[in-house]
Amino acid sequence: MNERISVDVEMRQSWRYASGAAMERFCEGLRNKRIEALRCEGCGRRYLPPRPFCGNCHLHLSHWVPVAQEGVLEAWTVVCLPFLDGRTGTVRNGPYGMGLVRLDGADTTLNHYLAETDPSRLAVGLRVRAAWRDDLRGAIDDILHFEVMQ
Ligand SMILES: [Zn+2]
User: Fold this and answer.
1) Counting beta carbons within 10 angstroms of the beta carbon of residue 6, is it exposed (0 to 12), middle (13 to 18) or buried (19 or more)?
2) Which of 17, 71, 109, 126 has the fewest Cβ atoms nearer than 10 Å?
């Protein structure tokens, strides 16, 4: 008869993720508090976050356009459970807000954290703006979160 055994082992892995040319340029812009989208020459759609091809036309995208640091909250939620942040590898304790933000000048939404965690103060259509970290690194979390504008 086989007995079941258990061995506790802690494994560590490290890896580097290649974000691609579009995200690399996008992140370099963030280092300078510059947010840029990629615009399709075929249909004019402005993608943020940028992507290499248009989802409508399937054209390669290479025309960068600046977008504003403020825009409209298109969807939101408040998360109350701890979450392992895939970007940092650290646990983010709740509550924290998450939103889909369409920045002025973009046609698509950016999924990001919201400063507001009170559901009674959040609504689709609210104006929000980016809040930046002090030590910019050229990463998506250079934008700490989006704040509701008064
Ligand atoms: Zn297109």
Assistant:
1) exposed
2) 17
